Amino acid sequence: MRGTTARAASRVRLLWTAPVRRLLRPRVSLVFELVAVAAWIALIASAVTGDSHDGDRAGASHHHMSAPHEVHGVSASASVSASASASVNVAMWALMSVAMMLPAAVPALVHVGTNSLRWRRRRAMATFAAVYLAVWIGYGALLLAPAQLWARLPEGVALACALALAAAWQLTVHKRRALRDCHRSSPLPPSGRRAVAGTCRFGLRQGWACLRSCWALMLVMAVASGGNGMLVWMAVLTGIVITERLARTPRRPTRLAAAVLAVAALAVLLPDTAWRWY
Q1: What global pTM score does this model have?
Q2: Do residues 101 and 32 make contact, with C-beta atoms less than 8 angstroms apart?
Q3: Half-sphere exposure (CA, 13 Å, Cβ side) for 133?
Q4: Quick one: which of 12, 121, 139, 198 is 20 to 30 A from 267 by CA?
C-alpha cells in the first residue's frame, strides 16, 4: 500500500515539475530567442521615446517652416532626406521581422542545431536565421516602396482593408498549403560546403513558406507601423503567427485568427464611418 502511494506521489510530482524542468533545460535556440526579446525591447523603447519627443518634433518643424530658407539645393536635400527615410524604414522593418518572425522559426532553428555537428552548430543556425530573415527583409523593402499610396487614403481605411484581406487569406487553401510547408523539415548534410548549401536551401524554403503563409499579416503590420497602436498590432499578429506555427493542428487557430482579423477590420472602419455620417 505504501509503495503504491509513493509511486502515485512520485507521478504527481513529476507531472508538476515536468514543465519547469522542460523550461530550464538547455536549448540550442536560446541565443536566438534572446535576440528576439532584445528586438522587442528595442522596439518598445523606440515607441516610448518617439511618443515623448512628438511635441519637440512638432515645434521644430513649425520653426523650420516659418523660417526663411534658400531655394538652391532644396531638391538635392529632399532626395537625400527621402533616401535616409527609406533606409530607416527598412531598418525598422528588419527589427520588426526579428521580433515577430524569428520566434516562429525556433522549431526550424532547433532542427538545424540538432542536425549539425557540435563545432559548427551556432554557425549553421546563424546562417539559417540570416537567410530566413533576408526573405522577410526583402519582402519589406518591396512592400514599403509604395507606402505613399495607402498613406493618401483616409485614416483607418487602409488598415481596415489590410485586415479584411488578411482575414480572407486565412481561409484559403493556399494559406493551408503554405502553413503545411512551414512545418516540414529536410535532412541536412553534417559538414563541408554541402552542409552550408543545405542550410541555406532550408532557410530559403522555410522563409518562402512562411512568407506565403504570413504575407497578409505582415501587410497589416506595414500599414499599422508608425501609428499609435503599433505595439498592440505587433503583439496580436505575433501571437497569431506563433500559435499557427507551434500548433499541432493549425486549422482551428487559423480560422480563429480569421475571425479576430475580420472583427478588427470592422472595429477600425465602423467608428470612422459612423462619425462621418454623424
Answers
A1: 0.77
A2: no
A3: 24
A4: 139
